[in-house]
Amino acid sequence: MDYCIATQSPGGGRILNYGACKQNMLSNYTMVCQMCNISAVSRSLQMDERLGYGMLMTRDEIRKRLAHARVGIAGLGGLGSNCAAALARSGIGSLVLVDFDIVSEGNLDRQFYFRDQVGMPKARALADNLSRIDPSVRLETHIEKLDADLVIKRFHDCGIIVEAFDQADAKKMIIETVLEHMPDTWIVAASGLAGFGEFESIRKIRSGRLILCGDGKSEVGPDAPPLAPRVGIVACMEADAVLEILLGSEDAFVSRTIQGGRQ
Amino acid sequence: MKLIVNHEETQFPGEELTVRELLAAKRWSFPLIIVKINGRLVERSSYDTQKVVDGDEVEIYHLVSGG
Questions:
Q1: A229 φ, ψ to 5°?
Q2: Of A69, A165, A206, A216, which one's alpha carbon is 20 to 30 angstroms from that of A10?
Q3: Which residues have C-beta within 8 Å of that of residue A35, sequence separation ≥ 6?
Q4: Closest-CA residue in chain A for B67?
Q5: What burial letters (b/e) apply to A110-126, b meaning 16+ CB within 10 Å?
Q6: What is the value of pTM for the model shown?
């Protein structure tokens, strides 16, 4: 059964237009009302008793809300640089950018850098690029390799951390650090994005304060390089998950979970 | 016993399993995973001692490199 996200009432098709919403919740909107079971955003809205977020927010309302958010990006490669760009464009107020590496020519096939930035620290190059998109986004940069202690130190005042590392052991480190030691912080992570095609196998899994994007299996290797489209898809899924957390609840910073309050 | 593994009900012989035994039973040999039992993270050092029993909800996520 499909439900209208605005009224929770059953609907007949995949999309209801506003005229079909029984309580006329969408009367001021010309957009269609999307079914709850299509996207993660609408599913979380279905659980949110306070209606009026997400699909029902204007661009100004969304930007006003995001302007107060501070998000950490751990790793500024294909995932982190593209995720940060999507967040900056969306209007996130403040980003903490951390990476130890410099831009290399080989990065230009998928990462949000330019040829004249080869040799620059990624944190600095990305800050330049994001400022060109939106000079008002507040940026804190650190050129260093993150370990568990530094994760806590650098991101202690971020409501959400985006895991955008390359290596699986580093992914495990930051996920476990956040879940164990940062009880009020969300971790949005990625696993499985190599190669091309099979878009339908890419999905988002939620478990308490952990959101995991990717197909969960395709590992980068000599025969499965990371390519711009799939890396970009997962990077933008991570950015979308951040928006979902920030826009789906007033209490995103007090460890409210999307999955019905489970830790 | 019945466990819920990654949101799917699954039957296992016996009354209890360690996390390590559960991984072996599922033939999951991934080196880097996140394990949660009833929503709580299980540290890698506890995989041999942490038990799962009937009704437990287990989540196991596989981490692969790339980013």
A1: -65, -50
A2: A206
A3: A2, A3, A4, A5, A11, A14, A15, A16, A42
A4: A166
A5: bbbbeeebeeebbbbbb
A6: 0.78
CA distance A167 to chain B (A): 5
Given this model, what pLDDT does residue A57 score? 80
State yes or no: pLDDT of A74 exceeds 60.
Answer: yes
Q: What is the pLDDT of residues A84-106, one digit of tens each?
A: 999 999 999 999 999 999 999 99
Q: What sign results for the dihedral spanned by CA atoms A116, A118, A120, A124?
A: positive
Return d(Cα A229, Cα A168) in angstroms, integer.
20
- Identity of residue A136: S
Alpha helices in chain B (DSSP H): 19-25
How many residues make up chain A in this entry? Answer: 263
Per-residue pLDDT averaged across A222-236, rounded?
Answer: 95
Q: Give chain B's contact residues with A (Cβ, < 8 Å).
A: 31-34, 36, 39-41, 43, 59, 61-67
Task: Give me the DSSP letters along A6-51.
Answer: TT--EESSSEE-GGG-TT-TTTT--SPEEBTTTSHHHHHHHH-SS-
Question: Distance (Å, rounded) from C-alpha A170 to C-alpha A38?
Answer: 32
Strand partners, B52: B17
